[in-house]
Amino acid sequence: MSTNVLLLSSLHMSVFQDLLHQPRLAMKLQETPDGGECVVEKLRQQILSKLKNNAGQSITTVRDILKLSPTALLHILDPCLTYVECMRLIELIHHFCAVPSVTALKIMQKTNPGESAPSFNGKLSTGLPTLDMQLHGGFPICSITEIVGRAGVGKTHLSQQLCVLAALSEQGGSIYIDTEKKMSVLRLKEITLERTNVLGVNDRRKRAAIDMTKERDLAEKVLENVTVHSLLSTRELLDTLDQLEKEIKHRNLEAEEHKHSGDSYGSYNSLPINRLPVRLIIIDSIAAPIRRDYVITSAPSKTSSPNAAIQRATAIFQIARKLKQLADDFQLAVVVVNQVGTGFSSHSGGNRQRNDTLDTTDGEFTGSLGTAWQYCVSTRISLEHEEDAHKLYQMQNQTRKAVITKSLVSKKAHFKYEVTKQGVRELLMGTQTC
Predict the structure, then answer these.
(1) Which of 211, 223, 285, 418 stands the most exposed, by the fewest C-beta atoms within 10 Å?
(2) What's the mean pLDDT in 372-388?
(3) What is the pTM of this model?
């Protein structure tokens, strides 16, 4: 975990011991006959109390205090510390919490634990063989992955499938932020039961042995490890992201206690409920609350604010920053569903022509939120219809295409898939790369 989320109360006593200049320290020693240790402890308690009870905002973590300038810190801690001592405090905390340089090998071991955690290899499987192969195991932790596509292409199905597979394979639990009221517990349960084949229960006699009680237990294994936050506005989304740190710590602590208690999943004939550490955050979708709150049009209107574009970009970067911080601090994957934006091709005869293609190579198609968001993600998967999307409501099991349009480990590749009871299932017709 990053030292940014370290509590100030956890700082080593030497941070406070080296804080006072000698004349001030000597004066306080004369005032306190019990000795230097009592002076330092008393100073420490005074500083922590003033920071915690700050009228503007409670300051309890290293991240909180490092946001302050020496002048702002003096305003809070006066008369405990002088301006010079406030500068010294910030310097000592920087030194104590400085991130040491690490080798590339250490970074690889951090994101790919290997033998130390056999059930989790630093990637979250998608259940799609080609996608997992191209991404070297699945969606990566410590980064943001975007799933973008038109309505009805299977974005939410894939998102819920990720939650199911993470829990059933014991990779971890999930946090699902639902901004469009699309989250379906019944669909989660359906994918769970259908996916038992994928996870090894493919013998019909064995599967027949799993009675209704065991099926219920299997579904509860997944549902117990998925927490859902339903919200509508950008402000609610930002507030929820602020609170996730506390929720993740609590769930990870529960998982650790459960692990040390000796309980485990066991076999399909014995399925006790188990709490897993959080490994996945899903936002479905990122565009919905921002589109609701920020109306941006080419022509002035009553609902369009002159500062709407600036406010919107600021909100997008705040969301991205919070997501990246959570991903890095807690070693988890962030998957964000995005809608299709309105794109226009180059000028033709002085007029802009609308572009409705999903080809991301020509620079015309972008997901919603535009370039402000595009640079915030490390991996992007585009989902698209193979045929006319307007006819899909009258037809079953339509073939669709997934394209890896941005990745740090894979070149552009695409494959076909369909949406079934199992979720998103790949049609193994061979992978094409560019």
Answers:
(1) 211
(2) 85
(3) 0.69
